[in-house]
Amino acid sequence: MNVDEKVQYWIEIAEYNLKTAKVMLTGKRFLYVGFMCHQVIEKILKACYTYRLEEIPPFIHN
To answer: CA distances (Å), 37 to each of 5, 7, 34, 59, 60, in order?
Structure first.
């Protein structure tokens, strides 16, 4: 998978997570809305990282 495909992958996952957050908002599942929005931000940051540095982001959460 080349860099452009990986960036597109992260963007698609972020869009999916955002749609999920909207569904959770409609269902008043506010804790999960926050969690899904956190996931959206994480995926977009990974897309930016991949785009700018042309490498896969490290698998860390610290």
So the answer is: 23, 18, 5, 19, 19
Distance CA 60, CA 16 (A): 22
Q: Where are the domains positioned within the chain?
A: 3-52
Residue-level length of the chain: 62
d(CA 6, CA 23): 26
Query: What type of residue is 31?
Result: L
Kindly report the pTM of this predicted structure: 0.88
| C-alpha–C-alpha distance, residues 57 and 6, integer Å | 11
Please state, in angstroms and rounded to a whole number, the distance separating the CA atoms of residues 37 and 27: 15
pLDDT in tens, 8-56: 999 999 999 999 999 999 999 999 999 999 999 999 999 999 999 999 8
